[in-house]
Design a protein that fits this description.
The chain has 260 residues and is an all-beta fold. It has no helices and 25 strands. It has one domain (9-257): 7 Propeller (Methylamine Dehydrogenase, Chain H), CATH 2.130.10.
Length: 260
């Protein structure tokens, strides 16, 4: 990627914010907004991921774009019967360059140099609105949904997780895998990890809505409304910054820290 001189955090709250914090402990951070006038397919960003070549991939409700640090280039996707490939609800990368997209209607698309595959209700997926998608340490793909449930795709089969496996009874489910390959969840104000097939809550944040992303060192970032926290097992959540202006309502859609 070009013109990348310092690490930055990416946050979406109906728009795409780079170096998301503008106030707080890390006062050197700054903010920039990119929208459709800058080349995004749509102003509603739903996912950000980075491939091993350094490029950022940005999923929106109007399609997929590739970002080289200067400009966005829209990327065409294969047509899938019964699915809107323009309406992307979530995005992740596995294996360095394997894109996974969760589409409106519950379809999951796998895109790599080896080809494209679509997973549907015929493979056991829910026909619900996805909230996020993540890859765990075993190479399985996890899809979370707005109804608070989650689904694990491994060996071409889907397994469902809900309140019985420890997820909170209410709230949108968000998932992220940290650098130690642990799967984290955030839902209903609670943040925790998956242990032996069961979701265990570690802490509770009062602000809503809430989403999480892996940190480059350890643990996860958690964006709770306007507040950005660092969270790791065994330590109390540490507030890093506040986003936007006092009194401004922020609804985070996705959170991402890049590799630089």
């Amino acid at each position: 990627m070009r013109d990348r001189k310092r690490p930055f955090l990416v946050l979406t709250a109906w728009i795409f914010l780079a170096s998301g914090a503008v106030r707080g402990a890390d006062s050197s951070w700054s903010a920039r907004v990119w929208q459709s006038d800058d080349g995004l397919p749509d102003n509603n960003v739903t996912g950000v991921a980075q491939t091993s070549d350094g490029y950022l991939w940005v999923a929106t409700q109007g399609g997929l774009a590739k970002f080289d640090g200067v400009q966005f280039k829209r990327q065409a996707l294969p047509i899938i019967a019964g699915a809107s490939v323009e309406m992307i609800r979530a995005l992740t990368v596995s294996g360095g360059d394997h894109l996974w997209l969760a589409l409106e209607g519950g379809v999951v698309m796998s895109v790599s140099a080896r080809g494209t595959r679509a997973y549907t209700s015929a493979d056991g997926l829910w026909v619900y609105r996805p909230s996020c998608i993540a890859s765990d340490g075993d190479g399985a793909i996890w899809v979370a949904y707005w109804d608070g449930t989650a689904c694990r795709i491994a060996d071409g089969k889907a397994k469902h997780f809900s309140e019985k496996e420890g997820l909170p009874a209410t709230g949108i489910c968000w998932l992220a895998t940290d650098v130690r390959k642990r799967l984290w969840f955030a839902q209903g104000g609670r943040v925790g990890v998956l242990r032996d097939g069961h979701f265990e809550s570690l802490t509770t944040l009062q602000e809503h809505p809430l989403c999480i992303a892996a940190r480059r060192d350890r643990g996860v970032w958690a964006c709770a409304g306007r507040e950005l926290y660092r969270i790791d097992e065994g330590t109390a959540p540490r507030k890093s910054a506040e986003l936007g202006s006092p009194g401004e309502a922020i609804e985070p859609l996705t959170l991402f820290e890049d590799q630089t």
